[in-house]
Specification:
With 202 residues, this protein is of the alpha+beta class. Helices cover 28% and strands 38% of the residues. The protein has six helices and nine strands. It is globular and about 40 Å long. The termini are far apart.
Length: 202
């Protein structure tokens, strides 16, 4: 009888550990972000945006890459964001001020970007929630970046659950066979300006 009870108890514990996390946990910003874990390059595995029409833009991107670096041991990080559209690569570079697990960026009073890093069970991923405000118009984005080009199904399902918890449209899953852009921006300042201008138009 005791053996039967023990087996039943073990099964109950296993089921409880396997139960999905509640929305409160899935969309809560991390209590603390490990800066060393953040640094490096990752590719976008999936993303969602609101308003929904902005998702069309994401569908046309062949690949998206991010790179975080910090050489000064301060809360300010250099962030490089690269989009591939067709055969062209478009680069954006920002300085992010990161405190705990939230980040902010202001650009010439034209827009304000605030965001946070959310929970993920994926060991090499970051989940970023962006809120972009410009002229009293706000958009909300959720991104799953990974050091791998394709995450496991359970990791993707967890991200889908986060998207649903935030009432965002179903995510766009990136094609892992699409080529990534080089990390480095051209050393030619004129070329950098042209790339950024074209990227903003795209």
């Amino acid at each position: 009888m005791f053996a039967v009870f023990s087996v039943a108890l073990l099964c109950l514990v296993s089921v409880s550990h396997a139960a999905p996390l509640a929305c409160e946990e899935l969309v809560r910003p991390l209590d603390q972000l490990d800066p060393h874990r953040l640094e490096g390059t990752r590719a976008l595995a999936a993303g969602s945006m609101s308003p929904p029409f902005t998702l069309e833009d994401l569908k046309h991107r062949g690949s998206v890459t991010q790179h975080f670096s910090n050489s000064s041991e301060t809360s300010v990080y250099f962030y490089n964001h690269v989009n591939r559209l067709g055969v062209h690569c478009y680069y954006w570079s920002y300085n992010f001020s990161i405190e705990s697990s939230t980040f902010t960026h202001h650009l010439d009073n034209s827009f304000e970007l605030t965001g946070s890093f959310l929970y993920t069970s994926c060991p090499d991923c970051v989940v970023m929630r962006w809120v972009l405000e410009k002229e009293k118009v706000a958009s909300v984005d959720l991104y799953l970046f990974s050091r791998r080009r394709e995450v496991e199904q359970k990791e993707m399902e967890e991200f889908r659950a986060q998207v649903k918890c935030l009432s965002l449209p179903p995510p766009v899953v990136m094609d892992p066979t699409k080529e990534l852009c080089p990390e480095e921006i051209s050393s030619d300042p004129a070329a950098q300006a042209e790339e950024k201008t074209e990227g903003q138009k795209a």
